Amino acid sequence: MVERMDSREGFTKGDKVKRAGEGPWQLPQDGVVQGWLTFEYAPTKWYCCVTFGGRYIGRYQAHGIEHDARPE
Q: Torsions phi, psi of 64, nearest 5?
């Protein structure tokens, strides 16, 4: 069974985030949280679904992303 939620570990749906760490990154660095989910093969691990550049989707654990503090 897959579970979903909008907020977890300090990241909420709609938050602007970027990947944590140095890179180098092949994909856009700007991202938006789409929500949290588990997978059937890993029901106890929660992953944050993030859309980068409005197009590329990645699934990260909380330590793999950070809030984007750049001014708009």
A: -95, -5
pLDDT digits (tens, 9 = 90+) for 10-33: 999 999 999 888 878 787 888 999
The alpha carbon of 61 is separated from its chain's Cα centroid by a whole number of angstroms, namely 7
DSSP state letter for 35: E
- 8 A C-beta contact, residue 56 and residue 49: no
Structure tokens at 66: 């950070």
CA atoms within 13 A on the CB side of 19: 17
| H or E segment and range at residue 71 | none
Q: How far apart are CA 2 and CA 54, in angstroms?
A: 24
Q: Which letter does DSSP use for residue 10 in this model?
A: T
1-5, 22-26, 39-43, 57-61 — which is least confidently predicted? Answer: 22-26
